[in-house]
Each structure stands twice: as structure tokens, then as C-alpha cells.
Amino acid sequence: MSATFPDPRDRLIIALDLPSVSTAESIIARIGDAATFYKIGYELGFAGGLGLARELVADGKKVFIDFKLHDIGNTVARGVASLAALGASFATVHAYPQTMRAAMEGKGASPLRILAVTVLTSYDEADLAEAGYAGGVAATVASRVAQAREIGVDGIVCAPTDAASVRTALGAKGVIVTPGVRPDGAATGDQKRVATPFAAIRAGADYLVVGRPIVASPDPGASARAVQAEIARAVA
Q1: Catalytic residue among 68, 107, 154, 206, which?
Q2: Which residues does the annotation say bind substrate (predicted)?
Q3: Structural domains of the chain in order of their starting residue, each with its CATH number
Q4: pLDDT class for 188, splitting at 50, 70, 90?
Q5: Smallest Cα–Cα separation from 118: which of 92, 156, 147, 91?
Q6: Active site residue 62
């Protein structure tokens, strides 16, 4: 592992993939102190979620801005600088060398960690082939991790099924964040390369991103604690 986590809550990132700030605020209130870390992506971000991100930071929570930035270098650098000023803990960029370099420049001396997205968890071999990547998932992930490590990016976002190979390639210091995590019995939805929280942690993940199994649960707080119990069991 790349860090020591005394509290399993710090390793669970709850994805607020929700249509409105009011809906997200309701879920956050129901979760209460069962969570310390939240992810805001396109859906909520474009519905006023950056204001909510500021509120969460002010309340002592950690925020992961998952916009997967990819643009000309200057645009990426300035966007990342804005996210650093927001107080975000994590931000994602696509794992293209120019984009990763620009993001690292943009974050400056801030504590913001830049995470490079390798291959989306909704993609499998057929999807990559359709997009023109002849090497397949494993080869594409390996190439992008190697470039990210050389550039000095803070961490990698990868499917839990790739976490073990990414940990080997990245080394002990890099952070690994895995979406596509589903507790036993949970629907996989549009994810294709998934694993349980226990398996993802054992494979080398530092942080787990879990959305629908928690936010769509009748008791989001209890569902969050159940995932954290799996994390604790995996660590033990």
C-alpha cells in the first residue's frame, strides 16, 4: 500500500452521481459521519456540484473532482489550478503524456493529487478494439501506467481487475483508486470489469469508489459501513 489508513472510512470514496445538489445533500445527510470522502463527476458538477464541493471541504470532508480532463496543455493546467484553489483532494485527467504533464504543472505546490485514468471500467477488449487500440486492455493500461510513473503523476485510476498489475508497475508510493467496485450481490450496471471491496483492496487498491450500491440504498449510511467493514477485513 502507498499509505497507512487508520480509519477504513478514509479509503471509501462515495460517488455522488446524482442529478441535483438537493438530492446529493439529502444523501450526504443520511450518510452522516459514516463517510469522509465524496466524488463529484459530470452529472452533479454541471448541476451546481462545485458549490457543494466547496461546502464539503469547508465541513472537513475530502472531495474528488472526477472530470477526467483532457485538452490542450494550457487549458488543462489552468483547470487544475482552479481545482487546487477549490480545495479538492483528488482530480482526474486522462492518461495522455501532454495532459498529465500539464496537470502536474497546474497543481503547483498544492496538496491536490492528480490521478491518471488508464482504461475506463466500462470498456473491455471489444470496446478498445472499436476505438482503434490494438493492444488490448492489459497492454494499454501497462503503457499508460509506465508513462504516468515517469511523469510523476500522483496516482492511477484503474479497474479493480487491473489493480494488482498496476501496483506492481507503479510501485509502493503511487496511489491507486478503483471504481467499478461492487459488494457481493450488487448489480454491475454499466461496469464490465468489477470486483468486490475485499478483492480490490487485496489486489492493491488504496481507495475504492462506490456509487449506486450506497446512494441508491434504502440506508446509505449502513451500506457505506458495510463496505468499510469489507475494507477492514481485507486489510486485516
Answers
A1: 68
A2: 17, 39, 66-75, 121, 182, 191, 211-212
A3: 8-235 (3.20.20.70)
A4: very low
A5: 156
A6: no
